[in-house]
Amino acid sequence: MAMKYAAAWFCFFLTFLNLISLGIAAIRVRPRLLPLPPPRAAPGVSVVRPLCGLDNFCEETMESSFGLDYPSYEIIFCVAKANDPVLPLVQRLIAKYPDRPARLIVGDEKVSPNPKLNNCVRGWDAARHDWIILADANVLMPRDYIQRLLASWQRRTGLICSMPLGSRPRNLWAELECAFLNTFEARWQYCAEATGLGFAQGKSMLWRRDIMEAGGGIRALGAEIAEDAASTKLVRRQGLAVNLVDSPFEQPLGYRGLRDVWMRQLRWARMRRKTFPLFYAFEIVAGAALPCLTAAYAAWMLELNVAAAILGVAAAWYGPEALLARQNEWYFSWRMPLLFLLRDIMLPVIYIDAWITDEFVWHGNEMTMREEEPSVEQG
Fold first, then answer.
1. Percent of the chain clearing pLDDT 90 (strictly above)
2. How does DSSP classify residue 18?
3. Cα 185 to Cα 165: distance, rounded to the nearest angstrom
4. In the chain, how many H helices and how many E strands?
5. Cβ contacts of 108 within 8 Å, gap of 6 or more
6. Bridge-partner residues for 78, per DSSP?
7. What pLDDT is stored for residue 156 in this prediction?
8. Residues contacting 256, CB < 8 A, separation 6+
9. pLDDT, greater one: 185 or 3
10. Can you say whether the dihedral through the CA atoms of 195, 196, 202, 206 is positive or negative?
11. In this model, does residue 363 exceed pLDDT 80?
12. Which is it for strands 157-162 and 365-368: parallel, antiparallel or unpaired?
């Protein structure tokens, strides 16, 4: 008898937590109607962009580096291999904007099994300024990109970052990726920040050089399989916090394949499990699958309408999530509630997979998180 009431209360509790997370995100995220002006005393900033291959909207996202409304910044593009197909595009963009200080560094430094980190090291070393941004190639930078990062810096901040905001999907599976990136991952990340447990995400990271160097320098990020996890730990060891920008920066998606979306989520989950296993253990309650199952069980035991119970819980989860997307003018279509449901069906499978699988492939590089692999624990 007690089990059915326990299931009902458990469902209610998880739904309540979900509504709190959505409320925090709704308060915390502030869509920008007008771009921020540069700060009065604008410090010099180095923007380091590691590149690997040609992605969707690659030219547009890279060219956005040159159009920033900031008085003193340089751009450093880093490419690991001399035969990378992105090289001609980078060279053409640098030639197109001769008045903007920009450099191309070809060749990486093997400091970890993480190819992205290896590709950033020489760019970091070459940076002329003490404020350094590490930004992925597929981040679309608005004109006030640097101002928005600097504006989020607080007294106890050690690192500012922005999760990717999926935009411009051109097929169903790209919309599914929006369902993962935007109203799901973004809101839980803002919720973590609000509770003092903010963590880095490597799409856009603003560093102050002295903080990085106090933690052992950029090569110390090789201590973890993911540079953003290592960044989080480096900052926390100094008693500082990871903070987020008020409004995330876009990552235009274009076309996506279901397998690409699936494998990317598996890879990220495996890395979260490896680097923060205690926090990852609670991710099983982050989606609506478990609340819907417990609601169905409670309704069945109480001889109520099971379908109505599941629909009620789904409405309580997905209605406010849809409102969050519409409020912030994030991508939304009539298919998104169905994709929220598909995402939450996928999440338990992804969760279980991450506990039993250690290998993944990233940009053609086979990587492992097994403890016995000495290359995983470097730095």
1. 78
2. H
3. 10
4. 14, 11
5. 78, 80, 115, 118, 119, 121, 122
6. 50, 105
7. 95
8. 169, 171, 173, 174, 176, 177
9. 185
10. positive
11. no
12. unpaired
Structure tokens at 121: 């090291």
Query: Cβ distance 331 to 169 under 8 Å?
Result: yes
Tell me how far apart the alpha carbons of residues 234 and 239 are, in angstroms, rounded to a whole number: 9
Within 10 A of 306 (CB to CB), how many other CB atoms are there?
15
Q: What's the pLDDT at 372? A: 44
With beta carbons less than 8 A apart as the criterion, state whether 112 and 377 touch. Answer: no
Distance CA 188, CA 250 (A): 18
Residue given tokens 């998606």 in the structure block = 253
Identify the residue whose tokens are 């478990």.
290
Is residue 108 a contact partner of residue 78, using CB atoms and an 8 Å limit? yes
SS (H, E, C) 174-194: HHHHHHHHHHHHHHHHHHHHH
pTM (predicted TM-score): 0.91
- Token pair recorded at residue 294: 């417990």
* Strand ranges for 45-113 from DSSP E: 45-51, 73-79, 102-106
Which helix (H) or strand (E) segment holds residue 371: the answer is none
Distances (CA, A) of 309 to 5, 77, 131, 349: 14, 53, 52, 23
Cα(278)–Cα(255) distance, integer angstroms: 35
Taking each helix axis from N to C end, the angle separating 258-275 and 227-237, rounded to the nearest 10 degrees, works out to 30
Q: Which of 64, 339, 53 lies closest to 174, judged by CA?
A: 339
Measured from the Cβ of residue 99, the count of other Cβ atoms closer than 10 Å reads 6
CB 52 within 8 A of CB 363: yes
Tokens linked to 79: 């490419």
Q: What is the residue extent of each domain of the chain?
A: 2-26+276-358
DSSP state of 144: T
Span 131-173, pLDDT tens digits: 999 999 999 999 999 999 999 999 999 999 998 999 999 999 9
pLDDT tens, 183-217?
A: 999 889 999 999 888 999 889 999 999 999 999 99
Contacts of 17 (CB under 8 A, 6+ apart): 285
Residue 376 has pLDDT above 80, yes or no: no
Structure tokens at 9: 């209360």
Q: How far apart are CA 38 and CA 147, in angstroms?
A: 6
Residue 375 has pLDDT above 50, yes or no: no
